[in-house]
Amino acid sequence: MQRSKVWFITGASSGLGYEFTKAALENGDRVVGVARSIKNLDDLQEKYPESLWTIGADVTNKQAVETTVKMAADYFGRIDIVVNCAGRLILGMVEEFSEEDVRKIMDVNFYGALFVTQAVLPILRAQESGHIIQISSIGALITGPMSGIYSASKCALEGFSEALAQEVKDFGINVTMVEPGGYWTRLYLDMETSKSNPAYDDLKAKFADAESVDSDPKLAADAIMKLVAMKNPPLRLILGKTVYEYAKENAKSQLDEWEKNKEITFAAEKATPPPAGYGES
């Protein structure tokens, strides 16, 4: 009989995090559901009293995260799958963002995921196994007006996660960055906007009617269950055909641009000895 897995999911009370929690429980696994407010998990707690343990915690508080992770590992005896799903969305032109709003996004989307990752690593290394799933965004690959700061937070998440994957591979730990497109979740309902600058009104109007394809978050949960069942999970996984095509087109555009300017690129490199005194203190 296959041993049930133990999940540690942040942002578990709503949106994708809730669907991941529900799917894992329905699969017979055990889940530590972490969120600022755990009230929305009451229905799952009632249905799965032995398999779900909920903890109210703020992922932007490093000490609280460390305590929560230790409690979770002690409660179920191990942690197999870590899903950093807690997220915050504020839209606006880059010039419009206040320092406070930038920090709000980075605190959750970057620092929150980093703090959880750092806290679970000693446990996963000791087990010599584990899978860290970073819920990123297609915005880490393609960005546009109004999403610059949000995308920056996801690019930062992917930057450390790609390095992390190489650092922990020999410990038997996998890392996957999941890049979803649009899903009908509270991320959009709770979305905030920066203080508006009228200089950008025309551009905002131009993009206001842009079409988007938003899907049932259960489909994302189905994809995650397939992901964790893989023997050799990928470093990156895009969710959604439409955003896959956009990402593929964007990658081709980047390659074409690099090729077009490679004469300048190549001329900027030449092996030469260091100047006298270089590197001396």
CATH class value:
Alpha Beta
Q: Measured on Cα atoms, how large is the radius of gyration?
A: 21 Å
Determine the mean pLDDT.
92
How many H/I helices? 10
Overall SS class? alpha/beta
Percent strand equals 15-25%
Layout of secondary structure:
Layout: E1 6-10, H1 15-26, E2 30-35, H2 42-47, E3 52-56, H3 62-76, E4 81-84, E5 90-91, H4 99-127, E6 130-135, H5 148-168, E7 173-180, E8 182-183, H6 186-189, E9 192-193, H7 201-208, E10 214-215, H8 217-228, E11 236-239, H9 241-260, H10 262-267
Helix pairs in contact: 1-8, 3-4, 4-5
Structure description:
The protein is of the alpha/beta class and 281 residues long. It has a single domain, classed as Rossmann fold. It has helices spanning 15-26, 42-47, 62-76, 99-127, 148-168, 186-189, 201-208, 217-228, 241-260, 262-267; strands at 6-10, 30-35, 52-56, 81-84, 90-91, 130-135, 173-180, 182-183, 192-193, 214-215, 236-239. A seven-stranded parallel β-sheet has the order 3-2-1-4-6-7-11, with helices on both faces. A two-stranded parallel ribbon has the order 5-9. A two-stranded parallel sheet has the order 8-10. Helix 1 (15-26) packs across helix 8. The termini are far apart.
Descriptors for this entry?
Rossmann fold, two-stranded parallel sheet, 7-stranded parallel sheet, alpha/beta, 281 residues, single chain
